[in-house]
Amino acid sequence: MVILILATILILAGLYLAIGGLRPRRRGDTPYCRGCAYNLTGIPLEPPYARCPECGAYVGEPAAIVVGERRVRRGRAATGGFLLVLGLASFGGVLAGHLKLVDWYTYKPTRWVLADLRSSTPATAVRAADELQRRFIANRLSARGLRKLAEICLAEQVRSEPNRQVHKRILALLGRLYTRESLSERQVERMFKQGLHAELRVRPTVVLGELVPYRVRWEERAPVEACARYEIKSMMLDDHELKSGGLVEVQGTALLSPVGSPFSTGSSFACTDLGTHVLSMTAHYGVATGVEQPWDGFTPQWDFQLDLRAAFEVVSAEGGPPVRMRRSDTLDQWILDEITLCKLSLYKSDLSEPERNELELDGWFCIGPGPPIGLVFDCHAEWQGRRIPLGIITVPARPNSDNGWSVHVNDEWAADIAPETLDIVLTPNPALAKGSVDIFEIWGGTLRFEDVIVHLKDDKGRLRPPSPKAVRPRLVEDE
Q: What is the DSSP string of 253-288?
């Protein structure tokens, strides 16, 4: 405020001095024509001869003549100009500072904001989603804008591997559209049909004689709370049904939400013919709004059939692609930086008989986002010369993913003594990778986590010592 007052004073003073310096008061008694400023000295000013010889104007009246000369005062004009520029600069600086605080994006036309919502740049799409939510809450979206927004949200609902922040905001917008009844009946049905996304994947190339692995990945993408019942009814290999050995019973209910974790079901089957084949599944999927319902008493409001298909090829043993094991300095450094053992705990098993004291060893590994290569490990603990298996770790390559991984391993601890520390070893397993649907190349090194503190868990789930610390591994060249 003080700067604005000073700037205003400088501007007014500058104008006063500049005008006074460039157009001062007339001084002297020399007559001039008011029309063209011609010097009328010696010219008769009495009628009928009172005419200006320059422009011909009649100068016989006092109003047609100005007396005196204007002499420009350059110093005063320069001072006024300096003060004027200084005042305008100060005023402009303050104004620019205030203009920077204005969120000009809020004035952007809605059709441009909707275009930003489709942007492949996450920051742009997030900004557009936040602005559209603000306008929706303030009822500033037209009917046409609401229709376009609904279509964009429904398309985002089924996008494969979406950006987490963008996806979360767009699903929130879709939920608001549904809650305010801004969706048509067709759009509501489409929204719930897409609320549980299913994808069938089969290992694309399998050697004759080996089992063909497949996996159905389910992902919750409902923008509002709903209950789903899903069930795989049949599975076909080419034109005949797989009745045994391949079809795993897959059914259940799930409470859908926009932040639900994906889950997978799968198995493997035998295929004895060379060539290209198609695996297809028929799944039934029902949805009801509200809280979770039991399987037997489930009453769906919408019922859908999902047809899933995936092709694969069976080749001879000579043409089968092996699982490659690869190492490089860049990959090794990523592994060392992004894989940590977050917690190792020992506790009494829930399945243990009352008279026995069976223990289980529980480990949690944290793997950073964007693994550049597949990770398939056998995990075991080493203690006093003994080797205790803990499980396996399987993480596919996701170089463009922004989501990290939390991997759990667990097994019985067949010893009477609870150790204070253990060594945990991760060993690559290419044979296990061949049983996956999407891992064809794995990191080929061995990791050892040394002297990992074992935390004892009591009946209430409390740990001793209470605060686990993440442990980083070292590379083992010959393990």
A: EEEE-TTPPPEEEEEEE---S-EEEEEEEEEEEEEE
